[in-house]
């Protein structure tokens, strides 16, 4: 139903301490961190903070290759989506793919509402107004009650552009 949150994977089962399950369309269990995982993520994120965007993109890409299914994978995809937008010119398709992957693989992640909003904006930038509106409307219907800040952004974007 519209507005209802996705079901949590695994019910009451304890989180898996091994590779994530092979359910590409559903949420994943959070694996036990691997050695070096935190440092690798922090190094990539530090490049974002330092505004070294051209270096942050390959750092996050390498992080995702080195630590697939990491507890920070959703964040890495989010930052890649953002970073592709600050390229000159922006890589809208790569950004769209990063945000879409985050939403499909990690629907319960705290970054999912923002990624859905960004996906709407990227579609708008690509000239796909109808698809953009669908994503923005989903932000409002799915998160309007629980994440009013992102729902307000979606409402404001709609009122300014439609």
3D architecture notes:
This protein is mainly alpha-helical and 162 residues long. It has one domain (37-161): Serine Threonine Protein Phosphatase 5, Tetratricopeptide repeat, CATH 1.25.40. It is 60% helix and 0% strand. The protein has 7 helices and no strands. The chain has helices spanning 37-49, 53-66, 73-86, 92-105, 112-125, 129-143, 148-161. α3 (73-86) packs parallel to α5, α5 (112-125) runs antiparallel to α6 and α5 runs parallel beside α7 (148-161). It is globular. The two termini are 26 Å apart.
Task: Tell me the fraction of residues in β-strands, as a range.
Answer: under 5%
Shape call? globular
- Major sheet details: none
What is the CA-CA span between the terminal residues? 26 Å
Looking at the overall shape, the CATH architecture is Alpha Horseshoe
SSE class: mainly alpha
Radius of gyration: 16 Å
What's the name of the CATH homologous superfamily? Tetratricopeptide repeat domain
- Give the proportion of residues in helices: 55-70%
Key terms for this structure?
162 residues; mainly alpha; Serine Threonine Protein Phosphatase 5, Tetratricopeptide repeat; 60% helix; globular
């Amino acid at each position: 139903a519209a507005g209802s949150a996705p079901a949590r994977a695994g019910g009451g089962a304890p989180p898996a301490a091994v590779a994530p399950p092979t359910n590409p369309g559903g949420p994943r269990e959070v694996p036990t961190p691997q050695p070096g995982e935190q440092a690798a993520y922090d190094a990539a994120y530090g490049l974002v903070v330092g505004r070294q965007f051209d270096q942050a993109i390959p750092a996050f890409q390498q992080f995702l290759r080195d630590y697939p299914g990491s507890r920070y994978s959703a964040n890495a995809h989010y930052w890649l989506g953002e970073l592709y937008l600050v390229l000159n010119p922006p890589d809208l398709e790569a950004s769209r793919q990063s945000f879409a992957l985050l939403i499909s693989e990690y629907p319960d992640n705290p970054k999912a509402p923002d990624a859905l909003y960004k996906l709407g904006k990227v579609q708008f930038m690509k000239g796909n107004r109808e698809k953009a509106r669908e994503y923005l409307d989903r932000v409002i219907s799915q998160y309007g009650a629980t994440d009013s800040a992102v729902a307000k952004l979606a409402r404001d974007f709609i009122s300014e552009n439609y």
